[in-house]
Design brief:
Layout lengths: L1 H26 L7 H81 L4 H43 L1
Helix pairs in contact: 1-2, 2-3
Length: 163
């Protein structure tokens, strides 16, 4: 990008020099026979440099537009991936909490079984913790599935545009 800017700066400087030379030649009285042809040649060179400058400006604008498009696409993708990561982190935290509850409930259930008195409250707590763990695991799997789908969607839409 800096190389294009440097070339553009050099072309503009050359155009300025050519323009000053052309004005100086126009201001001089035409004493030489070839002065008119030299002015014509300089004007042609000036026009050619202006056309080249315009082409380079178009190229620079195209490069800038492509970069802006690429940057905006990357920013959208980063935002989507950050959102997915946050969702997965939340689901992972829920899963850890549910598993901790499940382990505590199972330990209490084992203790109650060893004592020979399995209480329905302990059994209900254990089953509720297991159900919560299963639900948290399902949410984590759904978040992972959504991540996979979000990566596949752009590929499928690209395939649709190519067909």
């Amino acid at each position: 990008m800096s190389r294009i800017a440097e070339l553009e700066r050099r072309i503009v400087a050359a155009l300025d020099r050519i323009g000053r030379s052309a004005k100086a030649l126009e201001a001089r009285p035409v004493a030489e026979a070839g002065a008119e042809s030299e002015i014509t040649a300089l004007r042609a060179a000036l026009d050619k440099e202006k056309a080249t400058n315009a082409q380079l400006s178009d190229r620079v604008n195209n490069v800038r537009q492509r970069q802006e498009t690429s940057v905006s696409q990357l920013e959208r993708r980063l935002a989507r991936l950050t959102e997915q990561l946050d969702l997965q982190s939340l689901e992972m935290l829920r899963l850890k909490k549910a598993n901790t509850k499940l382990m505590e409930s199972n330990a209490a259930l084992r203790e109650a079984q060893l004592e020979g008195a399995t209480e329905s409250v302990v059994l209900n707590r254990s089953l509720a913790a297991e159900l919560e763990a299963l639900q948290a695991e399902r949410r984590a799997e759904m978040a992972e599935m959504e991540e996979i789908l979000s990566e596949l969607r752009p590929l499928v839409s690209q395939e649709d545009t190519h067909v």
